[in-house]
Amino acid sequence: MYVFIKALVQPYIGFLLLLVCGLVLTARRKPVTWRRVAVTWTGCLGLIVLSLPIVSRNLYMTLETAFPPIQSLPRQLDAIVVLGGGLMERDGLLESGSMTSGTLRRCVSAAEVSRHYGPIPIVCCGGPTLRSTPQLSEAGVMRDCLVTMQVPDTQLILESHSLNTHQNAKNAAALLQRRGLENVALITSASHMKRAVSCFNAQGVTVVPLPCSHRAASGVPPTGLDWIPSASALSRSNRAIQEWLGIVWYKLRGWI
Questions:
Q1: Structure pTM?
Q2: Degrees to nearest 5, angle at CA 80 with 76 and 84
Q3: Does position 3 have pLDDT exceeding 70, yes or no?
Q4: What backbone torsions phi and psi does residue 254 show, to the nearest 5 degrees?
């Protein structure tokens, strides 16, 4: 249900529906009234605003400001938890081709942190999120990626059943508690960290956030290009708003 609602409730879909409805009403019913024109323009202007790079950057800043790029690592860690960032359709025989850029960035960060602390456990979280290949889990793909980065397989613990952040935290917390691991670092995208930390706190696990994949560079003055609409900015705006909708949904469900 959550996956269906997440796919349906997307900001750009709402504005597209407004635009289409306005055009249909304007074309089929006469005379043209200001209300019908207003519906059309609301949908159009909404899409334009979300397509502005300056808007997408500021939307991401609302999520990332509390989790800036790390300047130093904690003195001691007992374990690292890295959350999956999604999978893609497999690229032929290469399982690595199933990894999204977000998942890859998280794996790279986990490998770098692991090299700093030595052979501490790394919990890879993520289940089979692709309907076409249910045998492929995010945790399994991350394990293969980390092994290619010279992380020993003996360090890796797989949590390959969770399908969302709430389940990530619940299942990982059980693994950590069984092993008596307390000083835990959490690696995920900066824009996702707010919800992820809240989920782990709700499970009684205090984590040290180590965010990656920052998209909103602070202190960078806007340029003229920031006011030119683009498809990539629309996609980023949509993802940022979806993350806030996810936070609201999790609060309504009592997960955070």
A1: 0.89
A2: 160
A3: no
A4: 80, 20
